[in-house]
User: What shape does this take?
Amino acid sequence: MFRLYYAPSTCALATHIALEEAGAPYEAVLVDFSSQSQRSPEYLAINPKGRVPALVTESGTLTETPALLCFVAQRFPKAELAPFADPFALAQVQEFNSYLCSTVHVAHAHRVRGTRWADDPAAIEAMKRKVPSNVTECFALIEHKLLKGPWVMGNDYTICDAYLFTIASWVEADGVDTTELPRIREHRTRMLARPAVQKAVAAEGTQIG
Amino acid sequence: MFRLYYAPSTCALATHIALEEAGAPYEAVLVDFSSQSQRSPEYLAINPKGRVPALVTESGTLTETPALLCFVAQRFPKAELAPFADPFALAQVQEFNSYLCSTVHVAHAHRVRGTRWADDPAAIEAMKRKVPSNVTECFALIEHKLLKGPWVMGNDYTICDAYLFTIASWVEADGVDTTELPRIREHRTRMLARPAVQKAVAAEGTQIG
Assistant: This one.
């Protein structure tokens, strides 16, 4: 039985969805950000980075969403959540997920976690002002170039879809005009029709959009 | 014959090293940042993100360092650069590389690429001021928790080593006190003794440290 440490409205939702899609045995454990539980000694013993998600497995604890997604896909191959037999196709999955974690999530985080990168309140406000245009630029690239359709990688549903759905659930709050993103909105609708997605979203009580 | 698009002193060095370690057939193509070539129509046709690295392969073009590293490791299995047969071990490799791309590289980038996240010059200066403490915090975690030794993953040299070596080559300029990082300095020395590393570093003319 795995344990997924999560908080609502974070990127942990992507792994939560993947675990459901894979039919993995797991329990979801809430980390209460409102009481700063992610900084408690108990949680730092699980994940010294003080963030979610963290996944406790039979072999040890893993963090970082792209790693967790790949782990779930490879550990539960029957679900066919990633093309492990094809190096180029797998690299395309990794490429998409790396872009989400290193550029898109980071662009978003400057609205809500600016204190990570500056102490000056005016600088934190300056970062917030640039979030709508930065996140819009990222999602324009996804809309027009990266999202093959109907799923991210084309006809095959993969771990990329869980991750895109999760990060895209923040765009309205980030100030993005979603009328310019019809394909990403269709992707959200398509995702919300999947039982695994419904179950993970309901379990977290996460707001989508 | 692959083509690796790179610029000196960027994270492209990690893939450059991995290609050398793998004995892959490739040529390295310089993208001249001083003339903003990464924003030229010709380069944007190769990589619409306008960044390096990009790797043109027989199957198409790939970007994002963690994806390129995994691709090289899986495509050239004899080099044994990643533990593809073991889902947990492979996830540990991905976890480390994801941390480098989404947190450590990003912490560094606020010194040299602050205009990505704010327009106000005072805000950009405020970001720069926080870089030494942020990058120090990242590397303290690597020094004390993540780097198993002698290589990142322990006894086996992997793609994580090429990536750590690359990002760690920026820490002096980021204002980090490396006397607190003896294990990371030893790792650098160990890397510089490898012919593949020497060849990639020399080809790029990259300064280490």
